[in-house]
Design brief:
It is built from 7 helices and 10 strands. The chain folds into 2 domains: 3-116, Cobalt-precorrin-4 Transmethylase, domain 1 (3-Layer(aba) Sandwich); 121-214, Tetrapyrrole methylase, C-terminal domain (Methyltransferase, Cobalt-precorrin-4 Transmethylase, Domain 2, 2-Layer Sandwich), CATH 3.30.950.10. The protein has helices at residues 19-26, 41-46, 67-80, 100-105, 121-129, 166-175, 197-202; strands spanning 2-8, 30-35, 55-59, 87-91, 111-116, 140-143, 156-160, 178-184, 192-194, 208-214. 27% of the residues lie in helices and 25% in strands. It is of the alpha/beta class. The chain has a 5-stranded parallel sheet, sandwiched between helices. A 5-stranded mixed sheet has the order 6-7-10-8-9, with helices on both faces. The termini are far apart. Residues 3-198 form the Tetrapyrrole methylase domain. One of its GO terms (molecular function) is precorrin-2 C20-methyltransferase activity.
Amino acid sequence: MKKLYGIGTGPGASDLITVRSARLIENADVIFAPNNKGKNMALDTVREYIKTENIIYLDFPMGKVGPEIYKKNLEIIHENLSDNKSGVFITIGDAAIYSTFINTLYFDEEISFEMSPGIPSFLAAADFAGVPLATKGKNFLLTDDIENANLDFVDRIAILKTYKNKKEVIEKLEAHNFSYIYLENVSAENELILREKEEILERENYMSLMIGWKNE
């Protein structure tokens, strides 16, 4: 059976990937890298650890991706991954959280896979901003769908992919008595943290998220 490692490359800084992930990348025979119109954030993050020249690009547009794209990229993986080779699929954040890796492997039963943990953007964001996400007796919610999120029993929340619906996110947070911050490009040189509503609404960056906490 073919074996593929899903490597979470973290929020974007090359020194925030795990030692284990770095070693798997260094020893890989083939690297599968998500590609979006020439942008390869996961690949750019780990280039210094790559020893092989065998890099296969998988086209994934930002935003909503349909099953046909996952299946097409799965075919490419099968074509380039043999039983006696080590394959690595790199993905930003952690491979188990809203990742192209887990969504792609969902359509396959022939590849045996293993995931190496990465630092998710919302954890890095909370650390950099000095905002605790989970404390004793408090409920934490991670979501990319604020419209259907029930905030009645939530004390702290991280909302991913807020680049298109910040107004709706803020309105719902304020309606449930939440304070909030907005972050983009977490861990990068151009990292940005905003707390003022008007400034937040002016931004439009795919690599953004918001963290909220209920006022007591």
